[in-house]
Design brief:
mainly beta, 7-stranded mixed sheet, 4-stranded antiparallel sheet, globular
């Protein structure tokens, strides 16, 4: 079965950085869009960053200039470099991918920004 496996979350102080990774495994087919979503307690899931199959990117206004999404197609992996982290960035971060076989979600990795 297809799996998306996130890693890299953790506890970081305000102003710190984290690099999240998401690796796809299994018979996932041809991957097109990949993205990161996040969900804070009591809030809906929001799109943080997206990268298309051709490399075009899109970011939520709240993270522009601080976060960078990238991908390694050979490894079927997407990354989120998160800099200048704020307490408002605290959330569960979910990997998302669209392939020829459908849509896929990871199980999430927790990012907590606190002093």
């Amino acid at each position: 079965q297809v799996q998306l496996m996130e890693s890299g979350g953790g506890l970081v102080q305000p102003g710190g950085s984290l690099r999240l990774s998401c690796a796809a495994s299994g018979s996932i087919g041809s991957i097109n869009h990949m993205a990161w979503y996040r969900q804070a307690p009591g809030k809906g899931r929001e799109l943080v960053a997206l990268i298309t199959g051709s490399g075009a990117t899109n970011y939520a206004d709240s993270v522009k200039g601080r976060f960078t999404i990238s991908r390694d197609n050979a490894k079927n992996t997407v990354y989120l470099q998160s800099n200048s982290l704020k307490p408002e960035d605290t959330a569960a971060y979910y990997c998302y991918a669209v392939s020829s076989l459908g849509v896929h979600w990871g199980r999430g990795t927790q990012v907590t920004v606190s002093s």
